Amino acid sequence: MIKHLALIALLSTAGTARAEGEFRSVQDLLYDCHLEAADSFKNGTHYGRCIGYLEAVFDAASLIHACPSGAITYGQEMAIFTNWAQRNPKTWREYQLFGVIQAYQEAWPCK
Prior knowledge:
The protein has 111 residues and is an all-alpha fold. It has one domain (2-16, 23-107). The protein is 60% helix and 0% strand. The protein has 5 helices and no strands. It has helices at residues 2-12, 26-39, 44-59, 74-87, 96-107. Helix 3 packs across helix 4 (74-87) and helix 4 packs across helix 5 (96-107). The longest helix is centred in the middle third of the chain and has 16 residues, at 44-59. It is globular and about 35 Å long.
């Protein structure tokens, strides 16, 4: 439980500079990741926010009970999250960490 709280505290501060207390939802992260797919060169801030957040959660996969096997690319991480988010629009107002954890646990269940 303490590890989970530490992870949430760490990830709540991850990302680019933002207003103190700004809430970032599943939909916000989905937007960042979709802009990256459209044109990562023009949307570098969105790309950084998308990949940075997804990678931070991925690095803590064992803490969130997700068990990826082998090397995973940034593109795979983005596809896993964006596909999950598109299939679960009712979660779009939830905190972005919730969506990423759910997507990773679904994609990489621990056996």
